[in-house]
């Protein structure tokens, strides 16, 4: 137990092959961003591999965890898109035995961002967005901005994600709006 291979095996057990390939690309991208930003590479590796650990769990597992771990009941009004990070971090903690709060916060905040994000949290948020398998119109611009300034990358993603949600009439999680207010006006 405790080896990298054990962790990979346990993650692979919970993910379909495409999702497992994604988390390995996020790991590689996160490690590169860690090197460039003086962040612990091992934490970047573990957080990248585990960020979507809970993505393919049934809704019932999240609902049970929200109750068991006394998370904000308001979460019950959302769904997998929000749960797999915020609630998923609790499953990573209790099932995989990862207790590092910086890693857990990186998982918690990887979808919505947060007002305060540590350098590791910013790295996982960005690695998920720009990993080499991502293909959307602005991704090359996002990669370039993130290579120059990690925080500017966070602002770029936050703005584009919120615009996308609004354009598609999707429900916006209030913390996503808080992230927008904290980050986007800082990088005009
Ligand atoms: O899990 P991934 O697909 O790798 O990526 P992710 O966890 O960053 O994003 C999952 C989805 O969540 C993505 O399509 C954008 C969406 N999302 C982000 N913020 C919000 C949101 N969806 C809703 N409904 N509300 C939000 O505030
Ligand atoms: Fe995710
Ligand atoms: Fe993301
Ligand atoms: Fe992801």
Provide a descriptive summary of the structure in words.
This protein has 188 residues and is mainly alpha-helical. It has one domain: Hypothetical protein af1432 (Orthogonal Bundle), CATH 1.10.3210. α9 packs antiparallel against α10. The radius of gyration is 16 Å and the shape is globular. The site of one fe (iii) ion has 7 residues, from α5. The site of one fe (iii) ion (FE) has 4 residues, from α8. Its EC number is 3.6.1.41. InterPro entries: Diverse_Catalytic_Enzymes, HD/PDEase_dom, HD_domain, YqeK.
- The number of distinct β-strands equals 0
> Could you state the order of secondary-structure elements as H and E?
HHHHHHHHHHH
Average of pLDDT: 97
N-end to C-end Cα span:
47 Å
Overall geometry = globular
> Briefly, what CATH class?
Mainly Alpha
Helix/strand-derived class? mainly alpha
Our count of helices gives 11
What number of structural domains do the residues give? 1
Output the radius of gyration.
16 Å
**Low-pLDDT residue spans:** none
Ligand catalogue = 2'-deoxyguanosine-5'-diphosphate, fe (iii) ion
Predict the CATH topology: Hypothetical protein af1432
Q: What secondary-structure arrangement, pairings included, does this model have?
A:
Elements: H1 4-14, H2 17-36, H3 41-50, H4 59-68, H5 80-86, H6 88-96, H7 101-108, H8 119-130, H9 139-148, H10 150-167, H11 174-183
Bound molecules: 2'-deoxyguanosine-5'-diphosphate and fe (iii) ion (FE) (3 copies).
2'-deoxyguanosine-5'-diphosphate (DGI) binds near residues 110, 170 and 176.
Catalytic activity: P(1),P(4)-bis(5'-adenosyl) tetraphosphate + H2O = 2 ADP + 2 H(+)
Keywords: Hydrolase, Iron, Metal-binding, Nucleotide-binding
Protein name: bis(5'-nucleosyl)-tetraphosphatase (symmetrical)
């Amino acid at each position: 137990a405790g080896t990298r291979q054990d962790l990979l095996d346990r993650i692979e057990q919970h993910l379909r092959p495409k999702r497992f390939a994604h988390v390995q690309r996020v790991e590689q991208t996160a490690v590169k961003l860690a090197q460039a930003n003086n962040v612990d590479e091992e934490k970047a590796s573990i957080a990248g591999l585990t960020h979507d650990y809970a993505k393919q769990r049934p809704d019932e597992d999240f609902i049970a965890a929200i109750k068991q771990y006394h998370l904000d009941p308001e979460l019950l009004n959302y769904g997998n898109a929000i749960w797999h990070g915020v609630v998923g971090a609790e499953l990573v903690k209790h099932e995989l035995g990862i207790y590092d709060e910086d890693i857990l916060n990186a998982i918690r905040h990887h979808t919505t961002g947060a007002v305060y994000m540590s350098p590791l949290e910013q790295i996982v948020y960005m690695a998920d967005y720009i990993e080499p398998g991502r293909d959307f119109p602005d991704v090359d611009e996002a990669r370039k901005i993130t290579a120059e300034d990690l925080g500017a990358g966070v602002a770029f993603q936050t703005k584009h994600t919120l615009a996308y949600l609004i354009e598609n009439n999707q429900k916006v999680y209030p913390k996503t709006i808080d992230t927008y207010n904290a980050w986007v006006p800082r990088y005009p």
